[in-house]
Amino acid sequence: MHHELMDASSVAFLREALASTGWVERTRELGRALRATRSPGGLLLVGTPAHEPWHLTAHLADEARLCGLPQLAPTLVRWAVPADAPAHLRVGLDRLAEAGRGETLFVVAEQRAPVPLLERVEDARRTGATILALDGGDPELEGLAHDALAVPADGPLSFDGAQHLVSMSAGETPRRAGVRERLARLLDRISGPRVD
What Rg, from alpha-carbon coordinates, does the chain have? Predict the structure, then answer.
């Protein structure tokens, strides 16, 4: 719980610290691209066999709920699905073969994407899905993506920090509450309302 609280409050600080670097604008562009998904359930998140993007999936689900953007509610695509997993966590790699127009495949891979993943991404691109990537610097994956953001290990932004900025940016539209108001709401939800 404490970790979540730190995450939420550090996003504003991150943005201020990175304001002059171009990172904020790049994460906003990726967030806007995610929001362009047309169908609810059509935002497919997939990681690598070693790292599934649970954290980002949860953040995007929160953004979808907070902002009333059902197309932002993500579907986590899993490499290995336990038999006892609940329905919403039972989506396997086969789902990528069905990805098509109006849907977005968001690949989150800090390490190099393995060949089986690259092949599935290529197939999804061929059937009309929009491919987005957040990666640690993977030329092959970026070559398949319509838009990609590489987060170098030695850069000013951690991979985790980039995920937070992207998910928060995805929920922002010009008519929505500003970042500070949304952070305050998120902190209220996590820690209870503040008493002045």
Answer: 16
**Burial code of 151-182, b = ≥16 C-beta within 10 A, e = fewer?**
beeebebebebbbbbbbbbbbbeeeeeeeeeb
168/171 Cα distance (integer angstroms): 5
Does the 2-191 domain belong in CATH 3.40.50.10490? Answer: yes
Residue pair 117/48 in contact (Cβ under 8 Å)? The answer is: yes
Instruction: Return all residues near 78 (Cβ < 8 A) that are at least 6 apart.
Output: 52, 85, 89, 90, 91, 92, 93
Q: For 17-40, write each residue's pLDDT tens digit.
A: 666 667 778 888 999 899 888 888
Q: Lowest-pLDDT range, 18-27, 101-110, 172-181?
A: 172-181
pLDDT tens for each residue of 28-72: 899 989 988 888 889 999 999 999 999 999 999 998 998 888 989
Strands in 74-77's sheet, in edge-to-edge order, are 74-77, 43-46, 104-109, 130-135, 147-150
Domain segments of the chain as ranges: 2-191
Task: For residue 100, count other CB atoms closer than 10 A to its CB.
Answer: 12
Cβ within 8 Å of residue 166, ≥6 positions away: 27, 30, 31, 34, 56, 134, 149
Q: How far is CA 29 from the centre of its chain?
A: 12
